Amino acid sequence: MAITDHRDLEKGDNKGLEDLVEPLVDDGSKKVEDCDEIDQNGSMSMVLLSTAVAVCGSLEFGSCVGYSAPVQDDISIDLNLSVAEYSLFGSIVTIGAMIGAITSGRIADTIGRKGAMSLSAAFCIAGWLAIFSSMGSLLLDTGRFFTGFGIGIFSFVVPIYIAEIAPKNLRGGLTTLNQLMIVTGSSISFLLGTIVSWRTLALTGLIPCILLLVGLLFIPESPRWLAKVGRELEFEHSLRKLRGSKANIIVEAEEIHETIHTLQSLPKAKLLDLCDAKYIKPVIIAVGLMVCQQAGGINGIGFYASETFQTAGLSSGKAGTIAYALIQIPVTMLGVILMDKSGRRALLMVSSSGTFLGCFLAGTSFFLKGQAIFLEWVPLLAVSGVLTFIASFSIGMGAVPWLIMSEIFPLHIKGAAGSLAVLVNWFGAWVVSYSFNFLINWSPAGTFWLFSGFSVLTVVFVARLVPETKGKSTFWLLAGFGVLDIVFVAKLAPKTKGKSAEEIQASVNL
């Protein structure tokens, strides 16, 4: 699903201005000594524990989106569901996630990061219990919607919490764990779904939520959020707990307060502000990448993988589903490594070319089956095509569009841009996941060839419009778009303390 890197949809990014130039993966160029406020003897264990607890939400995210793939036959037979009813069940999670995602910023700012994670876990638990006990489509769909709403909140609050508690030199690497754990959760669901019943698989979805709720009792609240709401004593206690009892937290505490002051002083953009001529090209790129990500068919192929393999002629979809699950994790890890090595644009080109090849092979296998030629090769060709598709998607198209979206917009417009991107992405996910079974019934070969066609369009779109953002500041990217009234905010932050919003705005008009 790979929807994990949007920012506060109502109030803008609150990670910290210095993060505008932080790579997704730490390349090792920064040394631990650079962050001298860290007490290595006492802080790392708490930072790692807090991260481990938070990514239980990412694991839950993956478990939820991976649930529908291995259980389609069993649920449809047990509850006598039609294709339309199961398509609604499989896809309604995206509607819940859309609502959860666009409200997550407000929720996380109101009740805190830990509170938002607790609320999300509660919705997921209620959803899984509803699915487990359902005897018909109504309760089944209600449970799926609740889990979708829960993971929509997780998709925002987990990476934000990790970014806000982690020291600078570890922030990129720890935040990357979010995407990795989503893929891991999905793979676990795929694997377990081949050996347990659909009701039992629903109960396994409770495990990450329970681990999260228990873990939240032992980890601190985000110090940035505590400072933002004015809870100074708790802010200091939280920061000291994360950095160690012997750490000097004065410098970092001042940076946090200055960042919050700057963010509150910057103008708050709305969706209509994105129609301004100076933002048109970044908006086209961000929205276009979201459309390309979903139009390639990831949520249709991923949600109903087992049924796809059976349609191709495999006696059971379990073998293909297991291979699908096993290939996701290592390829996603490879993509994370390559993201700051090869560059974003090149990775997108390679990834979308691979998704074209995978869909073309799968479509060709179904065509051969329909023509009753080379039938012995059809299952192997279909499995190879789907695995090529998921490997190619995982290496680039899954995460890179979100990263580019976060890099091409200035800070004060990023919240509105993130809101639009989330809406477009989740709506696209719903369209593809709901229509996939109908398309397969119409023409399996035509469905995959359609997806391969969209992959070709993605290659063209990236080649013509998407800039390389690796190693470039927001200022220079915006300058390339003709936007010359936005400052490189990471360098602005130390200069804004004590200034009014009007003074700040005047200082950024280059």
Automatic annotation (TrEMBL):
The chain crosses the membrane at residues 47-68, 88-107, 119-139, 145-163, 175-195, 201-219, 279-301, 321-339, 346-368, 380-404, 416-436, 448-467, 474-493. SUPFAM superfamilies: MFS general substrate transporter. One of its GO terms (molecular function) is sugar transmembrane transporter activity. Residues 50-470 form the Major facilitator superfamily (MFS) profile domain. The keyword Iron-sulfur does not apply. PANTHER family: PTHR48021, SUGAR TRANSPORTER ERD6-LIKE 16. This is Major facilitator superfamily (MFS) profile domain-containing protein.
